[in-house]
Write a structure and sequence with these properties.
The protein is mostly helical and 43 residues long. It has one helix at residues 3-38. The chain is built from 1 helix and no strands. The mean pLDDT is 94. The chain crosses the membrane at residues 6-29.
């Protein structure tokens, strides 16, 4: 594997992880806000 490809591979993973965490966090916040409005527990 050439150094450029390896560098891009290593640099892309943090971006992928950050995107997934952002999507999960946004979904959790929506569920939490909806449960709070309806007066019910999350669990």
């Amino acid at each position: 594997m050439n150094p450029t490809a390896l560098t891009l591979y290593v640099l892309i993973w943090p971006a992928v992880v950050a995107a997934v965490l952002f999507i999960i966090g946004r979904a959790f916040a929506r569920e939490w806000a909806e449960a709070r409005r309806e007066g019910r527990d999350l669990v």
